[in-house]
Amino acid sequence: MTDLIFACVSGFGLLALSVGAFGVLDAYHKRGIGERRVDWLVALYALGVTANIVAYVMLDRWYIAAPLALMLWPAEQAFEKRGTFKRRGAKVDAITGR
């Protein structure tokens, strides 16, 4: 039964990861600047990687899941290149100058 659950979760993860990788590539090459589909594809990539990590941890193969966690780094970089998580600075007060 555990193998069936692993196969389903990992299969979904691999499908989501491979489809979402197109969004990561679009973000790296700065294509589709104003399109929200790129953000959704990058999020799908991250969901796929996370599903694979969960599947391997459920199978008690944490030593395979640990390096897979490094695959989340390209998704974070893609979101930074897209400017999705920009930090907004505080407005300066005209009286105090802060």
The dominant shape is elongated
Instruction: Count up the domains.
Output: 1
Overall pLDDT metric: 86
Structural class: mainly alpha
- Number of distinct beta strands: 0
Percent strand equals under 5%
The secondary-structure element order is HHHH
Radius of gyration: 18 Å
Helix content class: 55-70%
Low-confidence stretches: none
By DSSP (H or I, 4+ residues per run), the number of helices equals: 4
Task: Tell me the major beta sheet.
Answer: none
Our measurement of the CA-to-CA distance between the termini, rounded to an integer number of angstroms, reads 61 Å
Please write out the topology:
Elements: H1 2-28, H2 36-58, H3 62-68, H4 73-82
Helix pairs in contact: 1-2, 1-4, 2-3, 2-4
Written description of the protein model:
The chain contains 4 helices and no strands. With 98 residues, the protein is mainly α. The protein has one domain. It is elongated. The N and C termini lie far apart (61 Å). The mean pLDDT is 86. The chain crosses the membrane at residues 40-59.
Quick structural summary:
By secondary structure, this protein is mostly helical. The chain is built from four helices and no strands.
